[in-house]
Amino acid sequence: MSLQTRSMERTSAGEKQQTWQQYRIFIEEMNTLIGSALVEEFRNDHENDINPNIIVGNGERLPRGATKLINAADLKELGQIVLDSDIVIFHQNYCQAEYAYKLLKHGQYQQSKIFILISNPLTWSTTQLKDRKNDETAMRQSMGGDVEDQPFLKKYEKFTENDLPMRKIHFLERLKYLEQQIIVCDKPQLHAYVITPGLVYGNGEDILYDLFKTAWMTPDAELPIYGDGNNIIPMIHVNDLANIVNKTVTLTPNEKYIFAVDYDNMTQKKLVTTIAKSVGNGVTKNVTTPTEKMLTINVWLRPTQVFESEDQYIDAKKNPIIIWQCKEGFAKNILKIREQFKLYRGLDTVKLIAHGGTASGKSNLCKQLANFYRIPHIQIKPLIQELIEQQSELGELVRTTLQQVKDQLVAEALAIFEAEKKKKKVPKGQPEPVFDPSGIQPRLPDSVLIQVYRWRLEQNDAQNLGYVLDGFPKTLEQYEKLFVKEEGQLIESLKPKGVIYLEYPDDQLKEKAKLILDNPRYSEEQVVKRLANFRKNNEQLLQQYEQFDIKRISDQESAFEQSKDFITRNGPILVLQDVKEEEVVQIEEQQDDCTPSHQVSTLQQEKVAAVQQSQVQQSQVGPKKKGDQLNKSINESRLSKDNKKLTDEQKQDLIRQQERELLDQRSQPLRQYLADNVVPFLTEGLINICEKHPENPLQFLADFLEQKGNELQQLGQ
């Protein structure tokens, strides 16, 4: 099938005529952060089912919306694909990009082609900041970002694309040379562009991954800021970068060099602090050794004016061509970016309520679950103590309220004490009774208690990882105030995903309470009173909890295991986690045991070989990918322990699933062969049938395929 651009008209009764134009697009490294965003930007198979864009590229796996994987290291294959494509995009391997550009520059072809090089902001990193010329220019340059909290920015101006001759590069000379070649390209059939982005963020993160991971999984982490942190870092969301690339393809502007940055005035200090406050615990530290070179650059770039009106500062916001996701920048969109990180990394949260009567074992179970899943165990006493010691508005409210409640309780208790004292005369020779208020323990009213719990559930660790609430809420009113909006809708960011109900009869709970010594809250009188209150509110709470799923547990010995099964009822919980040495050794030992001497089946042997192959591959990838693969192995090893407890029927299902995965892996070469040699021609034949509506479509398709086969044979293919 010809890979040239094709267009087709599509009409139906009562609809206007719509024209679809198909492009053949090459995207380098489709599985990277930028590559995957470009694939999503250019794919149109979900809109155009007749002749969607054909997206080809290299990578580890074929992403959704792409058509074919190639081996870009094979320059012959790469050259054929480049010459056959309408749009060619490189963003990582600049040696291959130079080869592809020269091929297009000197090659012979009829239809126009577009070549885009996504460059590197480090090419500007050795260029001194541009001093401002006058106050008016500085004001206009600063629009789109705040500079009041960063007064040093007022001394400088942003670089524009016209300042390219001022750029000084002390490294990346080959990239600089390639950029210069592209900018002066004068071939009529070739539209070539250089797009220089800022630091790319968003989705699953790449450069910022280590900062996100550290803040996400380490409660006491201190995120590093190199030097004073006042260096300026241009940035852009990866989806906005992909959109700018798409607009460049669509509009083919006259400008050959384009900045792709957002409108924020970001510094390293502001960037790291934003991540620390919105993802971690808010703590940072200054370091003398940089952890990431991209975070040390100091360059101020103006967002491109290529796609905007002439006076961008007046008309840019009226009807912008670029559909921004994060135009205002990283800091103002951090919550959206945090949710994207969770989504793209496949992370999940464990949000639970442990519900049950007095002495049912809620706290012990919560502690086990919190340690296993590394989620906050939220108890009222430690929570109130934390706020009492905290210098904040809520902390002050808690301290003030507790003191007011205590003063009131002490006054009431003192009045009762004095009344009793008057009634009873003290025997001669015995000391006068003294009022002791130390035993009076004030409790927060619900109005403040709900604020305390809501504050805790909104903290980053609870939002990132989840939580387990220990015996709260206790009443329907508390539940509604904590989880329900005034309009009656649940608060999505706070609501639990399940409830574990430790369901025991009162007699059993009373017996368990007798085993708890030296605690007045578990005296017989107190237990009876607390159980009565629990039963009074229990049915109403359970009715509300039904919408989250309830796991009823009445066996204390297996409560933890039953809870884990309940949590993973919809699949394993994936979390970011550090890998301990003993866990790695344990995984390796398990793999070493899988030998023929242990009578392992052929299927198991092949899976072990696949694991060993993945270990070899891990030594060839970066630390981010290696950590992800190892975390996946640990999650799978945990699952393997649980598999030992599966029933025979569940084991059979697991074996069938493994066989399906193996068959799918073995069929990959055949599917690729069909995709390369059969599907394109079959698709073209079906399109012809749709266009011509022959009387005998099967015969028409057979004749078409025979004719196509003869043509290919004559061409020697």
Polypeptide structure, described:
With 717 residues, the chain is α/β, with parallel strands linked by helices. Helices cover 46% and strands 12% of the residues. It has 26 helices and 20 strands. A seven-stranded parallel β-sheet has the order 5-4-3-6-7-10-14, with helices on both faces. β3 (24-27), α1 and β4 form a beta-alpha-beta unit. The chain is elongated, with a radius of gyration of 33 Å.
Short key terms for the protein model shown above:
single chain; 717 residues; alpha/beta; seven-stranded parallel beta sheet; five-stranded parallel beta sheet; 46% helix
Unreliable stretches covering 5 or more consecutive residues: 1-17, 137-144, 310-318, 579-627, 637-642
Number of helices: 26
Can you give the mean pLDDT? 81
Question: What is the radius of gyration computed over CA atoms, rounded to a whole number of angstroms?
Answer: 33 Å
Lateral strand order in the biggest sheet: 5-4-3-6-7-10-14
**What spatial form do the alpha-carbon principal axes imply?**
elongated
Report the end-to-end length measured between terminal Cα atoms. 12 Å
Quick structural summary:
One of its GO terms (molecular function) is nucleobase-containing compound kinase activity. The protein has 717 residues and is of the alpha/beta class.
